[in-house]
Amino acid sequence: MILKKAILSIVSTSLLAVSLLELPRAAVAEIPTVTYTSGKYQLKSPDWSKISWSSLNPVQEPGYINITPDIASKLGYNPSRSWSAGQDIDSVIMLGDVDEAFAQSQFTLQMIASRSANQNNQLTLEDFGLMKWQTIGSLVKAIPSLRNINVRRIKPIQDLLQKAGIYTGGTLSQALNYNTKVSKLSLSQLDLSKYALTSIPKLTETRISKFQNWQQSFINQVPLLNKVPFDKMPQTINSGLDVVGIASVVLGKSERGDSRARENYFVSGKVTRSDKTVVVACGVGQECPYLELGDVAGQQGNLYGKRWASGSSQQVDGGFGILQRVNGGKEPTGRLVYGSGFKVVLTSVNESTGTANFGLFFRICMNFFLGGKSCTPYFIGPVPWVPVQENDLVILGRG
Questions:
Q1: Is the pLDDT of residue 293 over 70?
Q2: Cα–Cα distance between 63 and 308 in angstroms, integer?
Q3: pLDDT of 170-188, one tens digit each?
Q4: Per-residue burial over 186-200, b = 16 or more CB atoms within 10 Å of its CB, e = otherwise
Q5: Is residue 351 a contact partner of residue 286, using CB atoms and an 8 Å limit?
Q6: DSSP states of 235-256 as a string?
Q7: CA 360, 365, 367 angle in degrees (round to 5)?
Q8: What is the average pLDDT value for the chain, to the nearest integer?
Q9: How far apart are CA 237 and CA 257, in angstroms?
Q10: How many CA atoms does the CB half-sphere of 224 hold within 13 Å?
Q11: What is each CA distance from 293 to 242, 260, 281, 284, 297, in whole angstroms?
Q12: Which of 20, 166, 170, 258 would disulfide-bridge 174, Cβ 3.0–4.6 Å?
């Protein structure tokens, strides 16, 4: 097996990331869609009522990002991670990466259960991944009413205090006042699989954002969150149907960037700090497979003759802030069709079948206390997406 050379990118003096290696693709499942017809045209639109994190296809390429301790200390948590080809995307993406897009931190566990297609009453504290880095102090901050409850009614905290040799009589407030060490005791010292979620009063009614370092929890570490359809998120996903074009013809690797076909000819490009798609033309003379578009209004329409270039051939600038230089500061050309949660990229074309294949690419975002928000380029992917046939309609989204 021949591996392409990994692209190495250094961010400041303390952040290192390695891009993706091309390996055999993982199995691809069909995406649920709703089919619309308009005259002779057909559109397959994602059925967001049936699409959740767990139903997305696995990521097709491996990668990792390492955050060194000095950067992690500024964040308050360490978002370092690695992933493999074929790994489920809900075990790659952390809550903090996509909270601006979907506001999942505003969920409570009760809300998630009510919006999920699955119910599980046997869940334990171990199933709620972020519990293992909570302390008694952080729990009290997240759920202030715990202070007024007798310690013996909060079994995990009672056991934690007993393990530390601390008196467990009275309320939790009294225990905190009695011994300054109490607030620093971590739940990681317990076997959390022995305690039901309900063993901590009000836990399931508390917003995820209230818990310490919630940002570093992977999607699949929040019970049933990966089963919630995207149209039931606190901030629902954009349909992308604002702008729809015709997939006129796909053209392969023999195509090259043309000095006469600059930005006005393209609909694909880079993503800005304000989450806008800015079109970028293919480099003159560079390989440039693309999907040529038509417009339902005919030759007078704005989309007629425009090109969606393949991200497998064209890399554009991406990201911003300290994380901008991850992956060499580059991401595949594409569009924010459904909002900022992921970028839609034309990954390949098949001229013999008239097929345009697409994939989703994700990014890593962090909020620094004083430095503001920073995001990597969209470099985690691809996650195979809905293909489009020639003479069908294709969703372009806003802008």
A1: yes
A2: 26
A3: 999 999 998 989 999 999 9
A4: ebeebebeebebebb
A5: no
A6: SPPP--TTSEEEEEEEE-TT-B
A7: 160
A8: 90
A9: 34
A10: 22
A11: 16, 18, 15, 20, 12
A12: 170
Residues ≥6 apart with Cβ < 8 Å to 233? 102, 103, 104
Q: Which residue has the tokens 């990229």?
A: 345
Position 315: which residue type?
Q
Place of tokens 């992917």: 381
User: What is the residue whose two structure tokens read 């349909």?
Assistant: 239
How is residue 377 written in tokens? 């380029």
In this predicted model, what pLDDT tens digit does every residue of 233-275 receive, in sequence order? 999 999 999 899 999 999 999 999 898 889 899 999 999 999 9
Q: How far apart are CA 397 and CA 336, in angstroms?
A: 7
How many Cα atoms occupy the beta-carbon half-sphere of 145 within 13 Å? 7
C-alpha distances in Å from residue 53, one per residue of 64, 194, 352: 20, 28, 33
Q: Which two tokens stand for residue 314?
A: 């064209």
pTM here is 0.90
Whether 309 contacts 244, CB under 8 Å? no
Task: Please count the other Cβ atoms lying within 10 Å of the Cβ belonging to residue 161.
Answer: 22
User: What does the pLDDT average to over 288-305?
Assistant: 94
pLDDT of residue 19: 36
Amino acid identity, position 216 = Q
Q: Give the pLDDT band (50/70/90) at residue 27.
A: low
pLDDT at 398: 78
Separation between Cα atoms, residue 329 and residue 148, nearest integer Å: 51
**Residue 13: helix, strand or coil by DSSP?**
coil
Contact predicate 311/348, CB 8 Å: no
Name the burial class of residue 327, with classes exposed (0-12), middle (13-18) and buried (19+) by CB atoms within 10 angstroms of its CB.
buried
- Give the integer Cα–Cα distance in Å for 332 and 269: 8
CA–CA separation, 249 vs 264, rounded Å?
A: 18
Residue 18: DSSP 8-state: E
Three-class SS of residue 17? strand
CA-to-CA distance for 200 and 155, rounded, in angstroms? 8
Q: Which DSSP symbol is given to 91?
A: G
Of residues 280 and 242, which shows the higher confidence score?
Answer: 280
Place of tokens 């934690």: 160
290 and 357 Cβ atoms separated by less than 8 Å: no
Closest C-alpha to 266, from 297, 291, 295, 298:
291
